[in-house]
Design a protein that fits this description.
Elements: H1 2-16, H2 24-32, H3 57-71, H4 76-87, H5 100-127, H6 130-135, H7 143-156
Helix pairs in contact: 2-3
Length: 157
Amino acid sequence: MILLAIVAPAAVQAQDGGVVAKSPQQRQLEQKIICMCGSSGCVHSTLENCPMRPVCHGHTAQTGEIQSLLNDGKGVDQVLASFVEKYGEAVLAVPRNTGFNALAWVLPYALGALGLVMILVTARRWSRPAAAVAGGGDAQIDPGLDARLDDELRNLD
């Protein structure tokens, strides 16, 4: 039983194609493309990290398609464009920074900045004295009271 537990992972690795060398472009594409198999056990991870390998039919088909496109002389961007055309934008692990996707990247930062401005404005309002906010400060002081205060302060000297 112990021997089976030791040998079984090696057999699975060999079936996965772990011995086959992959080009740097293929490794880069496998990091950027989501496995689109649709199995219940698949969590739509990248082809590089597909948890359903070696039995994932989507992984096998997509990596074969990547290899054939690279063998045809297409570059990384052309292969990505081909996958987007076939599967839609959902195939990309990181969405492109154009159109609505750009808004999705910028919106959290804009909301954070707006929240910071609102906090600063509220803090400034709360830090002002109540008399100054009421409108005028010195204009509401009674002249008789002011004279009496001046007399008391002179007596202290």
